[in-house]
Design a protein that fits this description.
heterodimer; A: 718 residues; eight-stranded mixed β-sheet; four-stranded mixed β-sheet; 16% strand; B: 608 residues; alpha+beta; six-stranded antiparallel β-sheet; 32 strands; 14% helix
Chain lengths: 718, 608
């Protein structure tokens, strides 16, 4: 038993769910949309229960990936304008509202709606007066001012009260202006403005005119009319989309990543070669004879070979000819091109494995992974670390500039990595080599993963002396143990068990109670057949993870394998309590309880386990106890018989143990002739009539012939 | 999950060609059984509960119907209407229906900007107006012509219900939206139809429309020649800034090819805030950006333009920034800044002239999203509430696509924190102390404060992704979550929240931004979905797919409560909504609604 199956099924469900998310992630990485091209919506309040969808008339229904809305009367012309923030370009839009513009012609002799804008200043309250409630009381509308076909609403004859609260932050990631803006319907006058300040103080303002901006101060009954309207008018935009500019796909890495091992076939010698990154910077470039920009690039480098060689860069060109299904070219085509060009650097053929490894590295760098594209180049520093990725042609000038910047310090690298200058709030984040290793291991490159993890442990080793406080020491021990266990797991996956054992030992030296190290060590012991050793490690793991069900399940399995049922019982009880629906665990627990003679305790678990009719052993064990137990309260002949009948119906073949148990059940219910008949038939068919089994059958047959049931003190089926 | 959309070369520059022209894709043979094709997560989830695993035959029907609808969409968007083409390809022989733009519409709104007419509901209409039954192709022509011509036409269908019928027929509900814009007029049609399809004709390319019944119809037009309510002035306001092309006109999608995931997530969760930072009476704008791109402070100039002065004013931060507030934190009369730039919330002091100095920072243990300021304890100092989404991840790329569990009621999100302003730029996290620790492990996107119970202190609504929202009642500085009790927990993918008294009854109402999912609607409204889900999950999964929510505040026996009036108000269709806010954009004193939406527009069409 490797893992409690109940846990596994829970984990299966979770895994399926996770995989749906993972698939979504991958899809986005490949450049697919997800609810993209959606148009913004606008709903008009029609003064009744229902709004109207006016999205297409609003002028706001862009297909942007919209996010934020900042409301503000930007041009101070008396209506609400909007700043819209987007994920897509344009990242920002200024939308000016023209509903009250003097230039808007009026229809139907209607007068314009008006507005009132107020800015609050707290004195007792917070200075911005965030949380203040402003009520604007409007006078009834005179009957002749309606001018509205749907007018005549009952409330035209009444005062109305508009309320708004001043907020800082609403919508999503947005904060609007602190000028509160009230629309004032045509024909109505402002009777009163009332402010309930956050302090609880109330100010009423009576001399307030529509179409004005006021500053109101807490405790000061005089509204201060603000000049406003001093903002110049902006022209409407035309041809916004012409402003875009493509992004150059050159990425200078802030966090350099050590390159994986790269083996290619040399163009000239056809020998397999392993790229060495030592001593000089390397530009690894992917190209193909059918890719014109690639050819241009290679020939530019060749033309400037002298200068490039002086800067001691080593260029390695790997061709994709023969790999791409859309082009019918071969290695020979690549060689011919390079010969004709007199390409002075090493060249070879790329392999699927190389492309896979580069894709893994790129998956750690980019959110978007559109697949392999040409041209593509990778500038690697003299320490074998990837420094610049190009998904574009590399000019000689660019290459020389990047070579000059290879020696940048880690702090400088981050500044070189961003396209526009600015300042940082936080120190750089480091890419963990364990993350790189995990990515390689998940794709089946265990050797590369192990290399990364060795770099990781070596990196931690170097830090060992810098560890100061006891807390730092504990954290270092934890990290170091984790790194070593990760490495051991990778080596186990690569079947290098002895090496794995060494790293596990190192991990346990750093952190003796590290459960994962004990679990992996236990598994290794089991592989070697060292059950006692496994038990020791699983027990240590269980001690440091007392709540872990899977750890206890492993310990129990090892104890059962060792025949130590007495010790196994408590672990199995723990597991059974955690996953009560798991029948297989119940069966094992029952078996262990029977082994240590706790028949009564075993029966309830057997009953649960026997619900799975496939579990013949539990069914028979249960039926046997029901038929033969010396304890009267445990015996239940008809139930035993019922179990046997169902098993017989399921198996449809004769089964010696089943016959024996069924006979005992018949005897228990008083059907001695049936019991006798069954055992006689069975004994006649036995191949080895003088076996132990045959002898005990004969003994029971004799009892039944005498009209006596069988009683088994042991409780385990013999 | 979107479909049938034309690639429209609109002003959204992201929908254009690949970022770079000299890049050639390489086609490698498939090695591992091809790529997976995931579906909308609600659909995906629904499939997981499907014991029969027959992959929802109805989804296949829906997909064939949608292929047909996209032909119809093409016809409705064309410069002329190809009636014969529609009849040949989409309509069953002899199919008839009543008018698609019904007669007897009611004028429901007319103001200086817009006229709205709609079909009366069955309860409103004294007698139902159906009109004569005529061939379906002809009815589509009339619908097309009613929108007017010539102009830039747009049409869109969403198939949001499906139920199989006997004899190779099936019933669907389809949402139809179309518009036509020209210099002379702008007009929009919005409708819901019941469409019956059949697949009896083996020679047909797909299912054919047998009948259409109009369940809802609304049309609106600009009152004034060709006008829109809003006109764009982005270039006019920002175009003179040196970084305009690179920073404003380049989307997150394009940056993904240059900027690494060490800095930048994919989803563009970057906030903005309006406020007058230099005390000149003109509102300025602070705009957060993704990691690796500097935040910008645009100073409003007297000519209406906005000038980037972020570098000289000390706020051009490159760290990935989400929430932002411009508020006076020290009550000295100028506007300070609060910026959520993980792993910390940063506070910067204004020197009175709009130049900033970092004063303090508070570490946040989760991915921070929206910020809001409030004086919850009424001590005269503004406190800050921070929404936490994911539990902290090192990688900004993980923000916004976590593993919430369970999907419809996730409780493994990050904690929100309330930072009490103790004066002198000291802040203390008091979340648990004040009772805001209750129900505080959700994927919170946004929060907004309002005194909904009119007792003088500010209460708090929190919009949570993947599950239930919170409404914390503030009682003298102590909070209790009353969302379930008041029926506003709004099971959904909560993205935003806004308060207003939209119906002018003196009680505050709530509008919550969520996700509309056509696929989620289709799947969760089928009879068999109900039989599969026994634990009451159906209602919540349906609610999750419905879209935005409007809660009307009501007073009953002196107690505040809320009614879900979303469907009556017809404001659910906000698509994949983000900021969804009340604002009175036509100055008539009634709060309207604006919804910013759309999740990820990448190089390729939606596969979801």
């Amino acid at each position: 038993m490797s893992q409690a199956p109940a846990l596994a099924s829970e984990q299966d469900k979770l895994a399926a769910y996770r995989s749906a998310w993972q698939a979504t992630r991958e899809m986005l990485q490949q450049g697919k949309s997800f609810s993209g091209h959606e148009r913004n919506c606008a709903f008009l309040n029609c003064r009744g229960p229902r709004f109207a969808n006016v999205s297409a008339i609003s002028g706001l229904d862009f297909e942007d990936d919209g996010r934020t809305i900042g409301l503000v009367d930007w041009d101070q012309d008396g209506d609400i304008d909007m700043w819209l923030g987007n994920r897509s370009a344009p990242r920002l839009r200024l939308m000016l509202n023209d509903c009250e513009s003097a230039t808007r012609p009026l229809s139907n002799e209607r007068s314009h709606n008006g507005y009132l804008a107020v800015r609050l200043h707290g004195t007792q309250s917070n200075r911005d007066a965030i949380g203040a409630r402003v009520s604007v009381i409007l006078a009834p509308r005179p009957p002749d001012a309606t001018g509205n076909e749907t007018g005549g609403l009952p409330e035209d004859d009444a005062e109305v009260m508009l309320i708004q609260t001043l907020r800082a932050g609403d919508g999503y990631l947005s904060q609007s202006s602190k000028w509160l803006h009230f629309g004032v319907e045509a024909g109505r006058e402002i009777r009163r403005v009332s402010v309930l300040w956050p302090s609880g103080h109330v100010d009423d303002y009576f001399d307030v005119l529509a179409n004005s901006r006021y500053e109101l101060t807490e405790g000061d009954a005089a509204p201060k009319r603000s000049s406003g309207g001093q903002v110049g008018e902006l022209a409407a935009d035309v041809g916004l989309s012409q402003q875009a500019e493509p992004v150059v796909r050159r990425t200078y890495l802030s966090n350099r990543i050590p390159m994986p091992s790269i083996e290619y076939r040399d163009c000239k010698t056809s020998e397999s070669r392993r790229l060495s990154w030592q001593d000089s910077p390397t530009l690894l470039t992917l190209w193909a004879s059918w890719c014109p920009p690639c050819l241009a690039e290679l020939s530019h480098w060749t033309d400037d070979a002298g200068a490039l060689q002086a800067s001691s860069v080593n260029i390695v060109a790997l061709s994709l000819d023969g790999l791409d299904t859309a082009h019918d070219t071969q290695a020979a085509d690549a060689s011919r091109v390079l010969q004709r060009m007199r390409f002075p650097w090493p060249a070879g053929m790329a392999t699927r494995e190389i492309l896979d490894k580069l894709a893994i590295v790129e998956s750690l760098i980019f959110n978007q992974q559109p697949g392999v594209t040409l041209p593509a180049s990778y500038l690697v520093d003299r320490h074998g670390q990837l420094a610049v990725v190009y998904h574009t042609s590399v000019s000689v000038e660019q290459l020389r500039q990047d070579l000059d910047q290879l020696d940048a310090t880690p702090a400088q690298r981050r500044d070189l990595a961003v396209p526009l200058p600015g300042r940082w709030l936080h120190p750089p984040r480091q890419l963990l080599l364990r993350t790189v290793a995990r990515a390689f291991r998940e794709r089946g490159f265990e050797q590369d993963a192990a290399q990364y993890l060795k770099l990781d442990t070596a990196f931690l080793e170097r830090q060992r002396n810098e560890v100061g406080s006891a807390e730092q020491q504990r954290e270092w021990n934890r990290q170091f143990a984790m790194a070593n266990v990760d490495l051991a797991r990778t080596l186990i996956a690569a079947n290098q068990h002895d090496d794995a054992q060494d790293y596990l030992t190192t991990a346990l030296q750093a952190q003796p109670d590290y459960a994962d190290a004990h679990l992996e060590s236990g598994e290794l012991c089991l592989r070697r057949g060292d059950v006692k050793g496994a038990i020791r490690h699983f027990r240590s793991a269980a001690d440091s993870q007392p709540d872990s069900v899977s750890t206890r399940a492993k310990l129990a399995a090892a104890l059962v394998a060792d025949g130590d049922f007495a010790a196994a019982v408590s672990s199995l009880q723990f597991v059974a309590a955690a996953v009560p629906d798991q029948l297989e665990i119940r069966a094992q627990l029952a078996r262990a309880l029977l082994e240590v003679g706790k028949f009564e305790d075993a029966v309830p678990h057997l009953r649960v386990a026997a619900a799975n009719e496939e579990d013949l052993a539990s069914a028979l064990a249960l039926a046997w106890i029901l038929a033969t137990s010396p304890a009267d309260e445990l015996r239940d002949g008809p139930a035993a018989l019922d179990i046997c009948r169902r098993q017989q119906a399921r198996l449809k073949t004769s089964h010696l143990v089943l016959i024996d148990v069924a006979a005992a059940a018949y005897a228990e219910t008083g059907s001695y002739p049936t019991a006798v008949n069954m055992l006689e038939t069975a004994l006649r068919r036995l191949v080895q009539p003088d076996s132990d089994a045959a002898r005990s059958l004969s003994q029971r047959l004799e009892l039944y012939r005498q009209g006596r049931p069988y009683r088994d003190d042991d409780g385990r089926y013999p | 999950m979107d479909w049938g959309e034309k690639e429209t070369p609109s002003a959204n520059v992201d929908s254009g060609s690949p970022a770079v022209s000299d890049v050639t894709p390489v086609s490698l043979p498939d090695v591992e059984g091809g790529t997976k094709s995931p579906a909308n997560s609600v659909t995906e989830l629904s499939r997981k509960v499907d014991v029969d695993r027959d992959d929802w035959r109805s989804e296949q029907l829906a997909s064939r119907a949608m292929d047909q609808l996209s032909k119809l969409q093409g016809a409705l968007q064309g410069p002329t209407f190809d009636e014969q083409g529609v009849v040949d390809q989409v309509v069953a022989g002899g199919g008839k229906c009543a008018a698609l733009c019904p007669e007897g519409l009611t004028l429901t709104c007319r103001d200086s900007a817009i006229t709205v007419r709609r079909m009366p509901t069955e309860t409103e209409a004294k007698q139902p107006v159906r009109g004569a039954s005529e061939p379906i192709g002809l009815q589509f022509r009339r619908l097309y012509e009613a929108l007017g011509a010539p102009g830039e036409r747009h049409a869109k269908f969403k198939l949001f219900r499906i139920e199989p019928l006997p004899e190779q027929r099936f019933a669907t509900r389809v949402r139809y939206e179309a518009s036509c814009n020209s210099s002379k007029f702008r007009r929009q049609q919005t409708a819901v139809w019941q469409v019956i399809w059949n697949e009896n004709d083996a020679s047909a390319i797909g299912p054919l429309i047998e009948s259409i019944r109009v369940l809802d119809y609304e049309e609106c037009e600009s009152q004034v020649t060709g006008s829109v309510i809003f006109r764009e002035a982005t270039v006019a306001a920002l175009g003179a800034n040196v970084n305009f092309t690179r920073q404003i006109m380049t989307g997150i999608r394009q940056w993904q090819f240059q900027l690494t995931r060490e800095f930048m997530g994919q989803f563009g969760h970057n906030g903005l805030a309006v406020g007058d930072v230099n005390n000149d009476g003109l509102e300025d704008l602070y705009v957060c950006d993704s990691g690796g791109l500097p935040n910008r402070l645009y100073i409003h100039q007297a000519d209406g333009t906005a000038r980037d002065e972020s570098a000289e004013r000390g706020v051009d931060f490159l760290d990935d920034s989400t929430g932002i507030l411009i508020v006076d934190l020290d009550n000295d009369g100028d506007q300070d800044l609060v910026i959520a730039a993980d792993p910390a919330i940063q506070f910067a002091e204004n020197d009175g002239r709009g130049y900033f100095q970092l004063r303090t920072s508070m570490t946040a243990l989760t991915d921070s999203m929206s910020l809001s300021a409030v004086d919850y304890d009424r001590d005269g100092y503004l406190d800050i509430y921070v929404c936490g989404y994911n539990v902290r991840k090192q990688d900004p790329a993980s923000r916004g696509l976590p593993f919430p569990f369970p999907y419809h009621d996730a409780n493994n999100g990050g904690r929100n924190i309330l930072l009490r302003n103790d004066g002198h730029w000291q802040f203390s996290a008091v979340t648990d102390l004040v009772g805001l620790g209750e129900n505080n492990s959700r994927f919170s996107m946004a929060a907004a404060w309002e005194d909904f119970d009119n007792d003088g202190d500010q209460d708090l609504y929190v919009a949570n992704d993947f599950g239930r929202d919170n409404l914390y009642e503030n009682d003298g500085g102590r909070f209790r979550d009353l969302a379930s009790q008041l029926g506003v927990d709004d099971h959904g993918a909560g993205m935003s929240v806004s308060w207003a008294d939209y119906n002018r009854d003196g009680v505050m109402d709530i509008y919550v931004g969520n996700m509309f999912s056509a696929a989620g609607n289709r799947v969760t409204y089928q009879a068999r979905f109900e039989t599969m889900q026994k634990d009451g999950g159906v209602a919540s999964l349906r609610h999750m797919a419905r879209g935005n929510t409007l809660f009307a505040g009501v007073t009953q026996q002196g107690r505040q409560s809320f009614r879900d009036v979303t469907e009556v108000a017809a404001v659910e269709m906000g698509r994949w909504a983000w900021s969804s806010v009340f604002t009175d954009f036509n100055n008539d004193g009634w709060a309207d609604i604006m919804v910013a939406n759309g999740f990820v527009t990448n190089e390729y069409k939606d596969d979801l």
